[in-house]
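Notebook B, p. 112. Complex prediction, attempt 2.
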Amino acid sequence: MQKYIFLPLIQFKLFWKAKSLAGRLLFRLKRRAYGGRSKWQEEKAKSRSLAQLFRITGASVLWGILAAIVLQLIDSFLYPVYEYFGLSVADDSTYITLLATICGIGGVFIALYYTAISNIGGAIYAHVPNNIRDLLARERVGSVYMNIVAFITLLGLCLIGFRLLGLQRIFLAVPVMAILGGVCILGFVRLGQRAFYLFDPTVLANNIILELSHFVESATVQGFGWNNPSFQTHANRRAGGALDTLITLSSISSKADHLNGKPFAQLACGVSKFLAYYAKEKKRIPSDSKWYEAKYVYRDYYRTGDIEVSLSHDTGTVIQPTVEYNRLWVEEKLRPIILECIQVNLEKKRFQLVTDVLAFLDSYLSALAREGEVEQAFAFNSEIAATVLRGMLAQGEEHGPNSERVENLAIADCIANIPISIALSYLAMVSYLNKETIFTRLRHIQWHSPKGIYSRQFLAYCLPCLEWLKKRIRFELVTDGRPISPPWYQAELVLQAEAEQFKKNCEALFEASPRLYSKWLDLIAKKNRPWLEAAVISREWEYWHKILFQIEKLVAIWDDISGERHIDGIDWPETNIPELQRGISERQKKILKVMSEKGILSSLQVRPEDFPDYAGQFLHNVGEAIFSSMVDLDLNTLRSTFKPYFYGCLLQFDKLRPLGPVDAWRTQQAFKIAAAPIIDLMDLSGYGLLFSEFHGSRDLWEVVKGVWNDFLDAEKAPEKRAVFSASVGLTESAFELPHRGTLRTKWHIEVNRKLESLEREEVQDYRNYYRESVVIHQSPLVRVFAREMLGSFHDGIDIFISQYFYKRSDIQRLPLGWRRLELQNELAKEEERYREYMNAKKGESQ
Amino acid sequence: MRVPSEGKGRAVSLFPSLSTRGDINQTVFMFIEDVHLAVMPIGGRTDKFPDFSATITGQASDRKRALLLLASLKNRYHDGDKEAISDRVNEIAEHLSWRGRAFYEIVQNAGEQNGYSLHGFTSAHLIRVPGFYIQLVPLADYKYVEKRFIVLPSKLVWEITMPRCLGGVRGYRTVLSRLKRFDILGPKFWQRDLEMRKRMPNFSLIEYVGIAEAYQSRVTKEWGWNRRDYTLENNTEYYSIYKRITRARAQALLRTHIINEINKLLRRLSIAARIEINGLPSADDVSKILGDLAAGKLSFTRALDSVSF
């Protein structure tokens, strides 16, 4: 319509000129209006910023003013005190000058601090992501210091303002401000020193770890809003941010040469410590907390409850998914940092740093085991070991079999020691596990309290079961006014969860660990690193020793928690510890075989002083195992170990024997020590014959005799053959307990104990003076050893010399000695005596 | 006692206009069904209780009269006492379960001096005044009945109510009305919002359903009603079994009550016969089973077998 008003005028030029002029004017007006509006908006935004600034600083300013008012009020009451002590402030100018000076110092410090931070930021943090740069701004000590300085400065200004407004001078302000000024100055000195550390960004990791710990605590039942999903999500998000920062920091550290040494190792140690703390805290975090990362899982339509299906059908929607939580989300983010640190430092050959990190990891994995997460601990140990061995074995080209670095040995020892720490920590924890404890804990749970189940020291793996119970028992409380499910039912469900975990942990202890050790040994053996191999074998032997020592405890715990069940049809885990125990026995035999292999024993002979004597340890262990195999007639073990043991003893003698003249007293002593393995060998060989006859197994003695025959037939050098006679002669020459004599006595006692099991008959002496017992056995040797009440006076050496060694015609004969003569006499008498006894018995029966 | 010998009752058994079967609350319907389901073994058959017996004692003629009386409830005659008694008790329980009380008009059989029948009638629009019951006929049903009201002398009416130990009539009706309070599929406003794809931020269906289920479970505590929820979503296995045994206890109480009331009626009608039930667990037996279960002396299977027909 408007367009058509001017329609008659369009034919006049003036109209168009006027229109043009009007247009220009309008444009100018609009331009001004736009400018004015923009300016207004800008001013509005600025005032908003100003208001925001006031809001941010409002609280601090109020505190400053409040402190000044408090000083002013207190001061008025202190005038009599000032008068009494004759205190005064000279005049206004001095008072104002003091305050202004302190304010000035504060202002300068603030400026200096931020200048320093800017410089550090420019130099070090210019090329790092924002989250790392942000760390510098959030640096805790600096932030606290700045807040204090700002407060002191503001307080000074307030006090000046009060005076200028005509209020009385505050006498108290003088000492207070002087002290605060001093704090300000001294603090700045410390902060200045600390500023140098900020050149290393990993120092700031402590702040992140502290933050993470804070978020973990807020997710536990101790935290504010722990039960509120919004607070849980908040904690999860904030922690996720902190974890990302930590990962970025570790990534930067691993790439920079000046950071990937000690700083990175400290970061990894800090992470390990945090993980250990987190492992302990997890039992106080609800297992369905949104602290854990959630994953949505859709259910089968026909497995879903009626209500949900009805709802889905009536509304034409899908069934809502259930939520599953990843309870290892923190670990999955942090563990790679530690692995990367180990890898980088191994590449750079910073072995001490690797050992330091491994020590912290040992603590972390022990903490995991104490929380009953043995399987998880072994899994992570496996990852660590894979990283470490990859790194160490990659350096294999530089090392011959006999030129291993002690640091590598220490690292291999650390790695192989971790399973022991895990096992011992778990066994220590599990020793408190019993039915009664579970009952007591359950009895004290206040089911109506949301925190009830988390405050009774149940471990994290019990939480799903307890939470399941809690929901239902609270339902019972609402509907029936009291818990209906009785304590024994509750206990049985919890015990089932305990049994499940116990089974998993036992499988990890008995099955996962040998797999780990085998894998490591295979890897090391392929690279021909005997010292590393020996370190791992030694630790594995210790591992099984410790497990076997406590196996009865495990059996008792299993019997306690899994016995006397009430609930029908419950899916109760089954575990067979004796079966697992047999597995250990097999594994031990395998280790013995590896231990006794000549290759290893001989290659370990040249031993640096700072290396453990694995060869000696293995030889001793194999000797003990050979003795056990004789007692239990385990021919397989004997066959696989006796020959290597034989030569191992000779090698050991060779290594230990003195090279000086034999008549010198000290040399004689040294020779006696060197002869000990030979004496052990002869003692064992003698027992071989005894047990061969005891078991009626000729094969046993054949194994032993075969090895001796092979050696003596092949070795013609008389001085080498004379070693055996000389060893016995020298050892028995003095009236003293020979070296390793105590250990051989243990064998002797064991032999006597074994022979006690033989059948005996009480018979009257032919003169009818006394009764004596006759051992019923075909072998006179066995009968002589078994006859005496307190065991035989003779030992394996006597048997070996008199029954084998002395009978070989090609051996240089030394006097038999009264002990062997006595044994021969006893054997002859015993044969005659037994014959008489048997004849008498036959006569009686006829 | 003298009763009209018409052979046909006067009371109106049902007012069609008051029928609520079509739009009854689903939860209430399920509860009612479960209250009367198998109060006695259906058809008198049970494998779990081989010693179960239900007999009518008395002279042959009285026994026959009693049997005929029971048969009149469903116009079906059984030769065996066990089957007749079991099914009739179940039917009376069904009648009771709808409103917490049941009314039967006592009618003398045509041509029989001492033969009686029982005709069930609705308790809706029924007023009790001294000596009489008055059925007020709704206007909508006038065309069928052609009367404004029907007067029944009290002596011609057999009234049976829910036993006091199970809350009595008032208690039972309170249970029924409370069960209607929550729609288990979510509140109406939420269902409407869901159709409109609106979401109320502070509403949690899981919380709502949880509260509703707990409420219903609490209301029906004495009846041990499990809301036909056999999942372990809200219950432990133990609690689920506890509920089933509590239900068996409630059924035992109801069963005993109905039998006692029938025996009273027989006496009232001068029928010298008596119904006796043996071999089924009494309420005390069930209570003992509950005690043994709580003490862990009974397995779940044995406990359930002890109370299930």
